[in-house]
Write a structure and sequence with these properties.
Elements: E1 24-29, H1 32-40, E2 49-52, E3 60-63, H2 65-68, H3 78-84, E4 89-91, H4 95-110, E5 116-120, E6 123-127, H5 138-153, E7 157-162, H6 165-172, E8 180-182, H7 188-193, H8 205-213, H9 219-223, H10 227-234, H11 238-244, E9 261-272, H12 275-296, E10 299-309, E11 314-320, H13 328-342, E12 349-360
Parallel strand pairs: 2-4, 7-8
Antiparallel strand pairs: 1-6, 1-7, 2-3, 5-6, 9-12, 10-11, 10-12
Helix pairs in contact: 4-5, 10-11, 12-13
Length: 379
Amino acid sequence: MSESPPSPPFPVPDADEAPGLRKIIHVDMDAFYASVEQRDSPELRGKPVAVGGNAARGVVAAASYEARKFGVRSAMPSARAVQLCPDLIFRRPRFDVYRTVSQQIRAIFLDYTPDVEPLSLDEAYLDVTRDLRGIGSATRIAELIRQRIRAQTGLTASAGVSYNKFLAKLASDQNKPDGLCVIRPGEGAAFVAGLPVARFHGVGPRGAEKMAALGIATGADLRAQSLATLRQHFGAQADYLYRAARGIDLRAVTADRPRKSVGAERTFDRDLSSGPVLRETLETIIDLAWDRVARADVAGRTVTLKLKFKDFTAMSRARSLATPVASRDALADVARGLLDQVLPLPQPVRLMGVTLSALEEPGQPAAVAAPPGQAQLPF
């Protein structure tokens, strides 16, 4: 349990000055896939575990905290993971088990609020402004949820509590694993100012590198940039970055959050043209894409292969099926066929991606209309 951030050097707004304030919780399971494997196989507890394929073309889907100490991370090639941690133990994914546990966790969420926005099998936003149990404190609700998850599933979850989604997600990552962090009204801008920009959701490694070249390392550095400067360098992302640097996020928690597609793509360190190399690389991207499909708990009927060439022109090929893609092997069969259709390529490629669309989301809760905005509420 963590202390909340220190009081900011400006007053917390009162109810009249903070219309529409919400109570948002972001719950994120700790090393979810790997933790389920350690729970179900006691001999794995305390050992470095990776979920994924351990073959030459395998990819790590999830890593236990013991493995992360060696630098093992999700989306890392399995061969590299073994180099970093020779004692790493691999387990094949058991997506049916992970979905069952996820459904248990989601049922706990719905005991406290109907306004739940699942992001994947292992994380979700909850708007507890509409407090079904009359508890009155978002912090207390987060504590109760974490206690019930541990009691009912044997797993740990971290939670962030704040007044918008951006801050709640930052907070849930602040004290992992098995941690709780609260960012109260009025504290958001000060909290964000001290964070590395790489912690901001949506700022990937390349974005962080670009910011570093501009002298932007922290939230405070980002806040010092004008909106015009951000638009010049970051285009469509500029408005988001401008608001994020000030702890502002106006997005609502929506239980019926629509998805258009789920997938993965990778930009290569060097351009690729050889058919065998492209086929081998495709297997890695299929692994990454299927992991995201499973995490999102969706099914889809259209598989799309995306290629971006050396000159930045792009090509895509898609195939729609009569029934939803039911397995990694089924996704791979279609993706391989799409690649074979375009080989040999007219020029080397710098990026490859695989996506699944025409999605269905089994078991997603029905949408509930969001309540009207409320003034400041106790956290």
